[in-house]
Amino acid sequence: MSDEPTPVGPPPDALTGLPAPPAQPDAGFHSRPLLGYVLYLSGALLFGINGTVSKVLLTSVDDAARVSQLRVSFAFLILLVFVALANPRSLPLRRHEIGPVAAYGILGVSMTQWLYFVALTRMPVGIALLIEFTAPIMVVLWVRYGWHRPVRNTVWLGLALALVGLGMVAQIWLGLTLDSLGVAAAFGAAAALAIYYLLGETCGQDRDPVSLTLWGFGFAALMWAVAQPWWSFPWQALQGSASPLGEDTAAVPLWGLAVWMVVLGTIAPFWLVLAAIRHIGAAGASIIGMTEPFIAALVAWVVLNEVLTPVQLLGGAVILTGVVIAERARA
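User: That's the sequence. What structure does it adopt?
Assistant: Structure tokens below.
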């Protein structure tokens, strides 16, 4: 990334709030836009399904930190094998990279996922994701007041719309209808995601997106391994089963849900989004990525019976409109 104002990047996914890796510039990537949109929507669909898969897994395992550890650790191992085979030159970390990349992985990757998982256990998938989608506004405000870079005044319109939308989602005229700890965790995840964006932009100046994401997962996995060693991992918690589609449907082994979370909920959509960015660029991905909360909410409604009121759905649309306006203020 250069020092010139750029889009903040694609918005967070419905599994952890983590966005696609820092994108390369848009120039030259628009040769097949239709294919790019199909690829991104396919990734968004997998992310949306995985939000529900993760919630079912969290409900059964009842330990957001351990589920976070499982996800980042195995995703790191898969990416490590791929990068070692496909681009081994990008593996070594230079000395000056270690500190920023470690902060990127620990503060950005691990905290975003863990806090998002905590929020998932206390509120509907769609609402948790909508709150986390306010992260790009935090990024733009930091760019303006932390980095002292110019942004357009329309950022204030975006912020105002996001606040109005959040009030509609929370239905504040009825009193706070959402779990307070869940709301705090979702906003914490948004702040961690803002750190992920900002450090990703800084670290991405000297490193390609794939290897940066690899080491982000790596440092997150290392942090969890120190905080909660693997020899104490509750593997027995994955020996049960759950019925993601309801009690009257066939049960699925929890280890199968864990495999989905890592492979089809992390690695596969990760590559779909990367491929899409090469055709529609970061700006195009930022816009089409706004479909992710609604896809996640739709899947959660069908599978988990998490119904949002019409006012909450309208509030979600207002939030996302505010985020788009705020992102464009930096573009």
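The chain has one domain: 33-330.
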